[in-house]
Amino acid sequence: MNRVSSTLDIGALKRLRILCISETGWFDTATVFDDIRAAGGAQSDQYAIPWPPFGRLHAENAAGFSALLEAETTDGRLRRLLFDTGWSPEWMDRRFAEEGIDQLLQKGQIEALIVSHEHFDHFWGIRSTLRHCPSIPIYVPDGFHQTGLSFIRQQGHTGALITVAADQPLVLFPGLAVVSFPMSTLLQVEGENVLYARLQNQGLSMITGCGHGGVLNLLDYARRTFTGGDRIHAVYGGLHLSPLEDWDTQRDQIVQALSSYGIAKMACNHCTGRTAVEKMLASGLPVLRGTGRHGSQTDLFLGNGDVLELE
Ligand SMILES: [Fe+2]
Ligand SMILES: [Fe+2]
Q: Where is the Metallo-beta-lactamase domain (predicted)?
């Protein structure tokens, strides 16, 4: 008996390599949250805070989130995407140089910049990308503010700017899709782009900036939407579980629930939180360890300069 599948087949990749350029949004969390409190609290407009590159408030504390995706398609083609562009232009310039991202951008070997969301630590370092490749196509989530769109233009962007429509998977190339999730979070930020990759010999993998939509929601979306989504092979990026290192029973339940997805590789970092990662390790989740280099403050999880290989 034939069953008609209602899931979306995005195609498949032979291999995907994710290089963590930087997962350190900032170096000291208390400083960032003191700055936010002084600016009026969690509901204030992030652009009103004179952080770099708009001002010099605690400039030494700014770093940023950014990753390079290098995918090999089934016909042997290599396709590269930049996922986020960090916060401090000085920090991003340094990390781009150390990892050769500057060269790849200059040679036009990175085909697009996917901005996960408008938060300062993922997006405000866009100068570091555009100075090497002003024409790079940029994908932003639905909900991006005019201030952010104007900022992209002011930084000299000359290429295509695509707003990903909410809840409509967009296949960037066979095996890789971006989904824009509606959400509202800290500092008036709305909408987050999440990437889903399908490996030909594995199930589906999910790549997040912060995962503000909730890790279980984002995984469940994959399960019901994509062919292969019933098997989540890997997760990379920020899962926003204990960014302030606080904890409660609700978060214990999330960690417990994560065990039911059969995830083979948990490459979480950034705003996941050390507390959350320790809880994951204690409950037997396969968290990949890092090397604690290039500004990453722990080797508990994949950090700056570390790589996740999927095939
Ligand atoms: Fe973040
Ligand atoms: Fe965020």
A: 79-183
For ligand 1, the distance from its centroid to the CA atom of residue 238, given in whole angstroms, is 7
In the chain, domain spans: 13-310
Question: How many angstroms is it from 200 CA to the middle of ligand 2?
Answer: 30
Ligand closest to the CA atom of residue 64: 1
φ, ψ at 146 (rounded to 5°)? -55, -40
Ligand at minimal distance from the CA of 190 is: 2
pLDDT tens figures, 15-66: 999 999 999 999 999 999 999 999 999 999 999 999 999 999 999 999 999 9
Pick the ligand that lies closest to the CA of residue 122.
1
Please state the CATH superfamily assignment of the domain spanning residues 13-310 in this structure. Ribonuclease Z/Hydroxyacylglutathione hydrolase-like (3.60.15.10)
The span from the CA of 254 to the CA of 235, in Å, is 15
Closest CA to 139 of 209, 243, 237: 209
Q: How many CA atoms lie within 13 A of 142 on its CB side?
A: 13
Question: Side chain identity at 254, as an amino acid letter?
Answer: I
- Cα of 251 to ligand 1 centre, how many Å? 18
Whole-number Å distance, alpha carbon 249 to ligand 2 midpoint, is: 23
All residues at 6 or more sequence positions from 221 whose CB lies less than 8 Å from its CB, including other chains: 179, 181
CA dist list (Å): 83 to 31, 113, 117: 26, 6, 10
Task: Express each pLDDT in 110-163 by its tens digit.
Answer: 999 999 999 999 999 999 999 999 999 999 999 999 999 999 999 999 999 999
Q: What DSSP string describes 216-272?
A: HHHHHHHHHHBTTTTSEEEEEEE--SSTTS---HHHHHHHHHHGGGT-SEEEEEGGG
Rounded to the nearest angstrom, the distance between the alpha carbon of 239 and the centre of ligand 2 is 10
Residue 227: Cβ within 10 Å count = 16
Considering every ligand atom shown, identify the ligand nearest to the alpha carbon of residue 65 and give its number.
Answer: 1
Nearest one of 177, 252, 185, 184 to 221, comparing CA atoms: 177
